[in-house]
Amino acid sequence: MTTPPRVDGRTARSERTRNAIVDAHLQLIGEGDMRPTADRVAKLAGVSLRALWSHFADMEALMTASGQRVLEKRDASYQPIPSDLPLPERIDAFCSQRARLLEEIGPAARASALKEPFSVGLQRYRKLHVARVREELTTTFAGEIGSDENLLNALTAASLWPTWSTWREAMDLPVEGAQAALARTVSALIGPA
């Protein structure tokens, strides 16, 4: 029987502080503060500015760590859709799950949109989100998509945050309305030609 490795107290404390800072950053964003300052993050995390800067070189590094956390939460929240379900049920399950996931990442996606053009880290996380959606689509609708890259591209664009944001924010649709629009789009794209 092997014993688990001992964790140094300073290392554990450092990790707790780092997590508290990321949690505070994401909490402020979730509360509508799209550009939280280091001072506000540190105060909410219960740490000094010095502690914040000892863990993150700059706000870009903090945004990148927050992006990683959002991706991890998204991955933990994702549930594979059985590929043997009838097509209408797969579409319904896919759209229901996408609606839930998009609502979960919404605050972070809005905040990221402000800084993404200037942030290599946020650009990388956006590409990872896109890759995850493409993987979901090709797994859930393997028979319907096949090797049709144009279809996959169209389904991907319809399933991402910018489209969801248009439905929810620019068109003022409730979640149910945006989900219905997504289902209609997915059905039209993968339905019989």
Report on this structure.
By secondary structure, the protein is mainly alpha-helical. It folds into 2 domains: 9-56, Arc Repressor Mutant, subunit A (Orthogonal Bundle); 65-190. Helix content is 76%, strand content 0%. The protein contains 10 helices and no strands. Helix 1 packs across helix 4 (59-77), helix 4 packs antiparallel against helix 5 (87-115) and helix 6 packs across helix 8. The radius of gyration is 20 Å and the shape is globular. The termini are far apart.
Please provide a brief summary of the model:
By secondary structure, this protein is an all-alpha fold. It has helices at residues 9-30, 38-45, 49-55, 59-77, 87-115, 120-140, 142-145, 149-159, 161-170, 175-190. The model has no long low-confidence stretch (mean pLDDT 90).
